[in-house]
Amino acid sequence: MERQIALLRGINLGPRNRIAMADLRELLAGAGFEDVRTYRQSGNVVLSSNAKPDDVARECEQLIEEAFGLDIAVVTRTRRQLAQVVKHNPLGKVAKNPKRYQVSFLATKAPAELVRRLESAVVEPERLTIVGREIYAWHPEGIARSKLWAVLAGRQLGVTATARNWTTVTKLLELAAE
């Protein structure tokens, strides 16, 4: 069985899309996933499965729809893939506050049009690097007024994506290694 990380998009942010992590763990364990663990309340799940990551994502989405009546996108990475995300860390020398350093995990590679939109939204001193299916973004002044974050967080990306700050990314890798 391979350790995988399932990242749910847009749950438990405000009053919408509420899912208790205990209920989510129970649902996924009941569906046959093993060693199911969650981190925080924002839809970070570490589990074991023999299925391919894309199949895990689809199954999680279907289970959540059936159990909670919510249409939630799920992006998955294997433990090895997440280890590569952390190893790459292309903005590590400039991103000094891990809570303002975001990684957006995409279901597929970013299309060229999206890359152009993201690059045009960067305002100094922000930084942006795209590596494979991950977008690393440094928001030293926060995300509240960031044009880049507005594009990254929007549903008009043209690709399923969800973001986590660097603290969460590294914690998920630790959990997946246990």
Question: Biggest sheet, in brief?
Answer: 4 strands, antiparallel
For the largest beta sheet, what order do the strands appear in spatially?
A: 2-3-1-4
Helix fraction by DSSP (H/I, runs of at least 4): 25-40%
Radius of gyration: 16 Å
Kindly report the CATH topology of the largest domain: Alpha-Beta Plaits
Known CATH architecture of the largest domain: 2-Layer Sandwich
Q: Please identify the oligomeric state.
A: single chain
User: Whole-number average pLDDT?
Assistant: 94
Helix/strand structural class: alpha+beta
In total, the number of domains comes to 2
For the record, what CATH class of the largest domain applies? Alpha Beta
Inertia-based shape: globular
Number of helices: 6
> What is the strand content?
25-35%
Distance between the termini: 13 Å
